[in-house]
Amino acid sequence: MSKKVTKGKKKVEMKEIENDVTKLTTFSKRRLGITKKASELATLTGAHVAVLSYSPAGKPYAFGSPSLQSVTDRFLGMETSHFKGNTGPMVGAHSQSRINSLNQEIDQLNQKLEDEKKKGKIMKKKLQGVERNGWWEVKVEHLQKPDLLELEKKFKELYIQLEHSKFCNKKSGI
User: Fold this and answer.
1) Which ranges form a coiled coil (predicted)?
2) How far is it, in rounded angstroms, from Cα 165 to Cα 139?
3) Domain limits for position 158
């Protein structure tokens, strides 16, 4: 058994990306990653977090927990928090609790979305294999139970069509 040889983790030189399409793609992927990390930080620690960035095309993107406005007001010393004033500490604590639970729900939904994307990629690969070979030539060892049931259904349909075809050929004398 041969050992898999990889290049390992390499240090990436920090320099500006020249290609505009690559630059936009990289920005999009990194923006989603940093937003997710900021949301996790706010959820896990209760910290007030704000992230503001502009794409290479000049489009602004912002994330704030509990909100971008409250974090910037607090940073600038103009704190007009929803949790102060006439509302009282109980309302503020309830609001913060609700915000935290919504942040956790967003994280769970993002995880489900990632899982569904992975399933979609797997299904796409399976379909590519089916298109190349034909559905009847798929390796059954790699299929899940729902896929096997679908394959069985297709075989039954094919059998019925062949029986019908044989019956029609006998009737016509072929």
Assistant:
1) 92-133
2) 27
3) 135-174
